[in-house]
Here is the input.
Amino acid sequence: MRSRLQAADAAIGRIEAAKWLDQPGYGIGNALARLTQMVGRPSERLRNALHGTWYGHPIHPILVTVPIGTWTLAFGLDVLAELGVVRDQAAAQAANTALKAGAVGAVMAAAAGIADWQYTAGRDRRVGMVHAMVNSTSLALNVASIVLRGRGRRSQGRLVSATGWVCMAAGGYLGGHLVYRRRIGVDQADRSPEPRDFKPVLALDELEDNKPRRVEVWDADVRQSIGVALVKRGDRVHAMGARCSHAGGPLDQGWILEGTLVCPWHGSRFDLGTGHAVSGPSTCPQPRYQTRVRDGVIEIRREQEPGDEIVTDETVARVVRHTVAEGGVPHAKKADEVLFEHHQFMRRLFERVEATPRGDPQRRDLMRVLASELEIHEHIEDKLFYPAVRSISEDVEVAHAEHRQLADLLAATLKLDASSPEFEEHVRALHAGLNHHAGSEEQSMFVEVQRLGEARLRELGHELETMLEQQRTSAFQRAFRALKISLLEAV
Ligand code: FES
Ligand SMILES: [Fe+2]
Ligand SMILES: [Fe+2]
Here is the structure.
């Protein structure tokens, strides 16, 4: 497996390093540019349609599904017909139709691909060229197959289109490399949620009319500065992310044209009012910021996007107002205290498993206790704690992901022979995983939840302890967990 991957990487590496492709590549790119420049506006409209700027997503990956689907169908039908599984005549007709539909889709996908390819450079441009050549070969083979089939040479036609199908798969691999490894076509803008509340960034009189200027805001989570481009037009100040969503170009070094901010790299134009791309190659809106002027200073706040779950001072105030009114349970432990104690209990259990000698059968029993406690802990957090704190802590999503990972690792550990070195290694990994997860809860989430107030935390703590107790003592829950653990051990 590893060596196959290495071979594929080496092959792509050779393409990426093939500098001789540059001259013809730029030749083709320049010829296309001349053509579109001569046609003018209509060609810009066509180009935007091919990029997917109007649609809001790249079009090329949508169009390629047509040849991939139809040619794969044809390939499958040919194989079944050759094996005698389906009726030869009906299968041949369906395969023929599929090949033709695929050829139409392939031409459209190629047009969209060329439009996008023109705005790539260096190694990506080279891989894009080979991707196009391989896919063009596939198209030519499929067209040849349609012709052969039309002349009654069905077997030859099937062989030729099968070769075309293999070419298409190779071309698809290169396309996948461009998107998933090289990130061509994916949003390159900085989508930091900062600043969540209005922050002063620049004195108004330092911003010239129609001249973009970069300011920076600090995102403590990713420990990096986020660039924002400010533009003053008349009495309005606009702000959008300074890193272009197409390929990361510096929009603050761009210029204003017809109410849009133009990217200096490939000329994407973004509406100053909405941040939407009105002309490509970008297909994706820029991050937007609200602006206001206070005492002659420009202040900006990141505009939330649909689906964002950002904790701001306002959301905290809303949640706290709501929850304090619910009262509390005066003598109960606070939620974070209950969970911290349980973390400590599991840490001690890990130490006991690790200290038990390899051959000792107690190791397996201790592991079962640990598995059961881990399961209970995740259960009470998932059911009670996380839902209660998700509106004031952004850590919940990652916490859910870490729970899943711990559960997967636990399942893998339970399957191993408790006296084996692999078991020991897995327990060590699980212990490290728990330490990381519990540690980040203690250092971050448990600190943030203090904003809920003592009364609410004690109430929540009481609910957690009740559920913990019920999970431990209920005969049904215990039997259910034991069954789950033994199934994990057995399968
Ligand atoms: S980086 Fe390509 S248009 Fe901005
Ligand atoms: Fe957790
Ligand atoms: Fe926890």
About this structure: The CA atoms of residues 197 and 464 lie 33 Å apart.
